[in-house]
Write a structure and sequence with these properties.
By secondary structure, the chain is α/β, with parallel strands linked by helices. The protein is built from twelve helices and 18 strands. The strands form five sheets. Strands 7-6-10-1-11-12-4-13 form an eight-stranded mixed β-sheet, with helices on both faces. Helix 7 runs parallel beside helix 8. The longest helix is centred in the middle third of the chain and has 26 residues. The mean pLDDT is 98. Bound molecules: (2R)-2,3-dihydroxypropyl phosphate and manganese (II) ion. The site of manganese (II) ion has 6 residues, from helix 3. This is Lipoteichoic acid synthase 1.
Length: 427
């Protein structure tokens, strides 16, 4: 009931981090293009296979500051069984996914105060999701209404002929190409979420789409992982060129993020070959880094930012960039650019990473020496308790549908799901 939400609010208020003046409001009213890199782990950045870069286009965005992107090299995914759906939920609500199952499916009819709805109500944004798969996968066609997503371009909007499709759905190159006219037609300012798909387990790729050779560990998924990553990288380059051609590049906020790991710990033998290191529990946790990079027009790139951050921090960061006070909303993350951003990143299983030490499966490790810390400090134990508490409070919000009882500010209007319909181009 409303007592429970008060408890949550006390926690998120205490955690709130003030905006950084350098960013606050700098992106107000600008189009936002959010690009989802399916199953992309950060170890791919700068990785060389047979002496060749796997993702030259992304590497260039990371290293060439002229391109305007700030890259967070200590950004982690925080997903569990909900995989892609968890990443969507976390980045658009700043709530955690559930310990089991997918909140998109089991809590798809909850009340949410999602980023798309807030942007529409505060600054007149329209929002859309682009994804070349069936609309009901992960219950998207229901939960998107509650998030306030205006348009959902799903497989009915795309040419899904055989040559355009592999594995789960539309290949990334035709996906971006065919999305362009819809994107151009959107009323501005828009918040557009482009969700790629080809770089997905088991990393199938047609011969004509593979520009590099597979790795040679003998583990097929790991070996092909590099080929589909390269294909994704090429599809991004094509998309950026199209955006430039259509005048949608320069003045847009562009954000790129990875949704979750692609190589599970069933592949540790092959990953030892790839990384040159034994995949210990700590190493496995370290491999949960996924890329996050963002370009805000008019704000110079910081190059590589080493702050420890996670998907939970994305929404408050974006709100502040647009000049919207994130403290009004129930959010478990904090602005990544803030001086008071809290440097601990909970994983859904209670493990967490900080800038100095990591807590993995009941043990603390020193980040530098990789050694177990035999006598954890009081401060470390407090952190462990805080992570448990944070995850529990977030769960209470979802299990109790507590946002029903919360009014963020005077302007907030609960989302009316009757206003949303994702039938298809002809309906
Ligand atoms: C399905 C796609 C993949 O539409 O988003 O989901 P995942 O298996 O990564 O959760
Ligand atoms: Mn995914």
């Amino acid at each position: 009931d409303s007592n429970d939400i008060t408890k949550v609010e006390e926690y998120t208020d205490a955690k709130y981090a003030e905006p950084n003046e350098k960013y606050f409001g700098k992106g107000e009213g600008k189009n936002i293009i959010k690009i989802h890199l399916e199953s992309f782990q950060s170890f791919l950045i700068d990785y060389k296979l047979n002496g060749e870069e796997v993702t030259p286009f992304l590497n260039d965005l990371v290293h060439d500051q002229e391109k305007g992107f700030t890259y967070f090299d200590n950004f982690f995914h925080q997903t569990e069984q909900g995989k892609t759906a968890d990443a969507e939920l976390i980045t658009d609500t700043s709530l955690y996914g559930l310990p089991q199952g997918s909140a998109f499916v089991t809590k798809g009819n909850n009340t949410y105060q999602g980023l798309p709805a807030i942007l529409e109500q505060q600054q007149g944004y329209t929002s859309s999701v682009f994804h070349g798969d069936g609309k009901s996968f992960w219950n998207r066609d229901e939960v998107y209404k509650h998030l306030g997503i205006n348009e959902f371009y799903h497989e009915d909007y795309y040419d899904m002929s055989e040559e355009n499709v592999i594995n789960y759905g539309l290949k990334d190159k035709p996906f971006f190409e065919q999305s362009m006219p819809y994107l151009e037609d959107m009323e501005q300012p828009f918040y557009a979420h482009m969700m790629t798909l080809t770089h997905h387990h088991p990393y199938l790729i047609d011969e004509e789409d593979a520009s590099i050779e597979p790795a040679e560990t003998g583990d097929g998924s790991v070996d092909r992982y590099f080929q589909t990553a390269r294909y994704l990288d090429e599809s991004l380059e094509q998309f950026f060129n199209d955006l430039k051609e259509k005048g949608l590049y320069e003045d847009s906020i562009i954000m790129i993020y990875g949704d979750h790991y692609g190589i599970s710990d069933n592949h540790n033998r092959a990953m030892k070959e790839i990384t040159g290191e034994e995949i210990t529990p700590l190493k496995n946790a370290e491999l949960q880094r996924v890329p996050f990079m963002i370009k805000v027009p008019g704000v110079e790139s910081e190059g590589i930012n080493h702050e420890y951050t996670g998907q939970i921090d994305v929404m408050p960061t974006l709100l502040h960039i647009l000049g919207i006070d994130a403290s009004d909303y129930i959010q478990f993350g904090t602005d990544m650019f803030s001086e008071d951003h809290k440097e601990f990143v909970p994983f859904r299983n209670g493990n967490f990473m900080t800038d100095e030490y990591s807590y993995v499966d009941g043990k603390y490790y020193d980040n530098e020496t990789k050694e177990v810390i035999k006598e954890p400090t009081e401060e470390m134990k407090k952190m462990e308790d805080q992570v448990v508490k944070e995850l529990e409070l977030s769960d209470e919000v979802l299990y109790g549908d507590l946002l029903r009882f919360y009014t963020p500010n005077e302007e907030w209007e609960p989302v009316d799901t009757d206003n949303y319909f994702y039938g298809g181009p002809d309906e």
